[in-house]
Structures are given as C-alpha cells and as structure tokens.
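fyi for ur records
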Amino acid sequence: MRYSETARLLVAELDLRFPPAALAFVDEPPPGIPRTDTVEPSSCAFWRRAEEKVFYAAAEDHFNCPLGTMVMGLPLPEAQMAQLQDAVGMMCGLSYVREEEVEHVPKVDRASTGIVYGPLEQFPMEPAAVLLWLTPKQAMVMSECFGLMNWAAGPAGILGRPGCGAIPIALSGGRPAQSYGCTGMRINTGLPEELLLMVLPGSVLGGVSAELDRIREVHRQMEAHYHERIASL
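which gave:
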C-alpha cells in the first residue's frame, strides 16, 4: 500500500481532524526538497507545518528548543548545549522534571544532520515515523490495532513530557507510542486540548489497513451490542 492510500485510510476510518504527518532522518539535504524558510520555536512546531507541505529542516533549524533537538538525535553545538543545561536546570528548579529523570530522557539513536517533514499522503521517501493527533476514542482503536491494550502482555502506558520523547520510544520499541504532550508541545503546536499524540514507527505502516478494518468492525459490533442492551431495559 502506498503512503497516500495509508493516509487516506487513516483519515477516513478514524475521522481525523488533522492529516497524518511523517518525518524521516537524513544525513544531508535531499535534492528537490526545499529547506524551511520560517523560524519555529521547537521541533514539534514543525510537525504542524508538516500537515501542509514537504520540507527539510537542518539541525540548526531546531535549535530554538535544545531539548527537542537532543531528543530528535540532532547534534547540539556547545552554545546550544549550555542552553539545554539551563533549560533543564529551570525545569528541575520548578519541580517540573525530577533530577533523577534527566539522564533517562529518551532520544533518537540514529545520528542525523536534519529531518524531512511532510504530509504522509505526499511523503517522498520511507518515513521513520508518522504522527497522529487523536481523541481518546480514536487512540483506543489504534491502540487495539497494535496490541497496546493487552492485559496478558501488559498494556503500554501513555507518555508525558517531553512530548517529542514519544518518537524515540516508538522507534526503539518498534510499536506505536502515545503521549499526552508536554506544556511546550501544546503551546508550540496550538494543539486542541482534547487531542493526544500517537507516533507510529514507519515499520508498522504495512499492517495498518487489515488491522484497522478488523478493529473498526469489532467496535461496530460492540456498539450495536450496548445500544441493544440499553434499548431492552
């Protein structure tokens, strides 16, 4: 299934408010893909722009959020590393982040010098990850598609701060990761408060169609069952 078909399937079956966005880590600017010409406050701000068009953002384009730059596996020069330390110190001082957490903040293992972003429907290369903004109901359907809700195996939790940490978690685990989203992510993306983030690693896209069809049918049957029960009372 082509990425365009996968994107249309996700939008139609889940009734998504925003189109799926994709990203890929690269070692050099890809030919034919324009570099971003706007200044963004964070890595996650690029995600919303990626719903509209394909573009490339170099490592330095992410430097306004040193923490996000680190999480995305991009190189941080000395000046930005000092900014990161200051930012983390501020968060710990506010008790927003515990000091013992700092060394465990996830980051993408793959070293790269930039990232290609864009709508999944138009994405010109194999995506490393796909980003979905979901309601709790939509998240439940997708979680069941990928076995995240499985008491026998131990259900997967939902992450919080930093919101971008869901990307390395999804990539390293090979299965979707979810995040409520941190304060910075919600402000920088303008995300409606009723939506949360799900990150699909590119490796699972091939199985989306069959599983989504199956789970949606299961939910339709369960909905009919509960409506019938209520009607019979």
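Strands lie at 21-26, 55-58, 114-119, 129-134, 158-159, 177-179, 196-201. thats all i got for now
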